[in-house]
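Open question from group meeting: does this chain pack into something compact, or does most of it stay loose? Before anyone orders reagents, we agreed to write out a predicted structure and look at it together. Recording both the input and the output here so the notebook holds the full record.
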Amino acid sequence: MNYIKFFLFGLTVAFLFPRESFSNSKNTFNQLVVAKASLESRFGLRSVECFPFKKNIGFTEDQIPLIENCLVGIRLIMSALEQAHNLEIHTVGISSRFLRTGGFNTFLIPWNASLDDTIAFLEKKIPKEQQDEFLSKVLMLKRKINRKFRINSLHCSQRISNEQCMAGYERLASLENLPSAKPTQWEEVILDDSQGLGKNSHSYRIRHDSPQNETLEILQKNPQKEWSSRKKMYDDINAKYKRAFERQLQIATYSCSVELSKNNCLNGMASLSRASESQTMRMKAWGEVIIDKYNTFIKDDFNVSIRFDLPSKKLVDYFSSKDNRAEATQNAVIAEKLEKRTLNNSSGLRAVCDLEGMRSKLCAEAFKDFIKFISDNRDYRIREPWTNVMFIDGTKLARVNFALNSSARDTYIYIDARSGRKELQDHLSRFKK
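Structure tokens returned:
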């Protein structure tokens, strides 16, 4: 049933999504959307992501060249698939290395690889018998591991290769013979290329090549004890900085990435506290603030991430471009009013802004462009099955990947909020009845 559903969706994309859309566009995001739709309809790719495992990016604007490189990589994949034969590929990540991961239909491709190297990598197939043997061995090893450790969820991340995944399972299985081994209290264990706490208090990432003694020590840890030390750290942070964060900056929530050590987290919080002495910082709108290992991002009107070792002076300088609290509130009100003006228009098309990663000012400008389009084209009617146009900030890597792989992309038309009136009109005109 899933295959039939995907096949029908592919037909929808093939016949209803205009392949010439954005053909003359200079907007990277808009070109990406069309290229992804073409890969989906012509070659059956279900998912394409731009640098899915890239962590160390830098500042907000450093995402832009990555998105541009992703478009180069997607065009490379398109050219390779046009020349390669009899391939079954479900997921491709545009990255900085070649990697076969997540089974046998998921690949990472360097964005700047040569066409010949890309074709050679994709055409290097693993025989069906070898695939079955691999999967059977994984199943056998996981059963052996669970007899001893009883891990509810054990799997490999897509950051490691199939071979590294297998080696990790073999290491875990060999721990069964150690007399000190006993069932783990971690509900989820992920074999990965890094080690540390996972996404929540019941999850842990173990390096696929971690020594036996380290692996066993991790499996025997008490999750509650591990997270209670972080709770104490946050208690100390609240005692020291609550006044600065909640009264002076009026931050809604503040926390540290689980990848950060206690010292790095405290250093980041101390830098933010020193920055709170700035009147400029006190005038800004703050929602969720995350002290991060790598990146300093302005995500939207309110939410940010701050690299833990960013000096307080640089912190203040960088966030000086962020909207003041009054400006952010005013822009949000304007965007909300404009959205109401777009409702129940004669085109049958509903306009919405991405709920994440979008500044209200940018959203308001996109709504103005849409209202102008509807006003100038009163006979416009949208063609089925399209029902919505969603404006995306095409300079944010996470939101680009969301739009490229959204489950609603068979009814939603995604377009960069920075497209401008002419490109919006040119594009929407191709979806007219």
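Observations to bring back to the group:
The two ends are 31 Å apart (CA to CA).
The mean pLDDT is 91.
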